[in-house]
Fold AraC family transcriptional regulator.
Amino acid sequence: MDWIERLNEAIRYIEENLTGEIEYEKLGQIACCSAYHFQRMFAYIAGIPLAEYIRKRKMSLAAVDLQGSDAKIVDVAAKYGYASPTAFNRAFQSVHGVNPSSVKSEGIAIKSFPPITIKITVKGVEEMNYRIETKEAFRIVGRSFPLSREIEQNFLEVPQMWQSAVLDDTLEKIISLMNCEPQGVLGVSACSDDEEWRYYIAVSSSAEIDNSLEEYTVPGCTWAIFPGAGTGKSIQELEKRIVTEWLPTSGYEFTYGPDVEVYFNPDPQNTVYEVWIPVRKKREAF
C-alpha cells in the first residue's frame, strides 16, 4: 500500500468515526507517520485543515439528520460528539450560515460537503533543489514553547514565539552559544505522538547552559533538505510544494522525527533558510 492509498485509508477511518472519537494519532498510524505530519500532509493536499474538514463533514451529515425530521437538536448534537447544544449551534452556523432548528422547514438552503478522495495529478512545475543526508543525533539549546495539537493554530502562534525570543534577548543569547553543525538558528517542531508537542528556538551547541535555557536532542535521522529564501510565508509555500510535488514521486516518505528549519541570517523579511524533513525510503507495496 503506497502513501496515497494510506491517506485514503485514513480518510475512510474518519468517515467510519464521524459519530465517535477520531484519534489523530490513529490517523498517523494508518498513514505510517506522526499525527503532526499527517495533519500537515492533509492540509497541504486537501487544501483544508483536518479539524475543519471533520467539522464540515459532521455538520453536513447533521443537516441531513435534521432536515424534514422531528429529531431533537440535542440528540443530533450528541450523535456528532457535541456535549453542549451551544457548541453544536455555533459549529452548525459556521458551516451552513443558519441555525439547526431552521433546517427542519422546507426551502432552507444548506451546504453539502462530501468526503474527499486524494489523488495525485502530475503537472509541470518549477524545479526543486534538495539533498538527502543521514545525520547522527545532535544537541540543541534554546527555549521551547508548547504547540497546539491542531497545527493550523500554530501558524498564528509560532511567529509570536519568535517575537518573544527577540524581545527577551533569548535569540541573542543562544546565538552566542552556537558552536556545532548545523550553523544557523533553528526552529524545531518536536511533535512525537508520545510526548507534549513543543517548538524550539535554538542553536546546535555543546556549551553549558543556565536554567533560563533548555536542551533537546534531535535524533539521528535521514533528512530531505530543501534550501529556500524569502519570508515566513515562503517557508510555508516551500513545505506545501514538498508535500504535494516532491514527496509523491521522490521514492521517500515521512518518518518519525522532528521538522527542522535552519535560518542562516536574521532578517525575517528576506531570510535564507533550509527546511529539513525526516524521511525514509518508501516501503514497497505488497
